[in-house]
Write a structure and sequence with these properties.
The chain has 302 residues and is of the alpha+beta class. The chain is built from ten helices and 15 strands.
Length: 302
Amino acid sequence: MTSPQPSVCIIFNPAAKGDRAKKFQVALSALEVGVALKPTWAPGAARSLAAEAVRQGFSTIVAAGGDGTLNEVVNGIADVPGGLARCKLGVLPLGTANVFALELKLPFNLKAAWKIILHGQETTIDLGHAVYRDLSGKTCERLFVQLGGAGVDSRAVDLVVPRLKQKFGVPAYVIAGFKALTRKPPAITVSHDLGIARGAQLIVGNGRLFAGRFPFCPGADLRDGLLDVLLLPKLKIRLLADFLFLLAAGKWPESDRKTLFQSSHLRIESEDMEFLQLDGENVGTLPATITVRQRLLRVAVA
């Protein structure tokens, strides 16, 4: 008798942070029989594996890794016509920051997260859509789940030391961020539904959280059809430190030195070459156009 085709495919990043990935590999044997596992082998592999899983008929595709793996999986599902309608996304947070998992209040315990994937509820959320240039100047497009950004944060992503990221996680980005602050400040211009805004740090939030548990976009809603946009002025270490301290304390910094608004369409430009990051990974450079795609992604939630 032929065994039934499994309905769940796990796309797993074996290079995820610290011991979490190793523990996940050990725990795989405890998962239900019939689950297909597709390990990644290089940046970009999760995208092609997710597209392959859609074509193979899996109804649930799980991203087991960090926000970068998650972004690739979502884009891979979307690469197949009708993939986002046919497939539900599951999340097993194994990465450095796991901002999207924090946004949805998903558990970091493997068994609890797996139970939600199999037996939890389902919600449908918006996705951001970016059109930008890659490093060769070619026009590209990509979806993002949680956030985008340009300025000091995308410079920090470029400067982060992979060995420190693997060992320490988020603190490696903090170190890289302070290095980025020592350089010429970015000059970013954002044209949006209501006008034009300028600053040195742009954050585009589909969700509330950024860089872990920091609610940089406190009014954001994954289902409202809008992107929340935060622009900060020329950043100095003291200003950034005060900003992060207040956010960590659960207080929104009241200051006329920030610009916060909502929009469904953004055009982002810069005086100099600046990277664009989506879900914590640099994907290309400015200029870029960012829009929102409403209620596009099905996700397993508690």
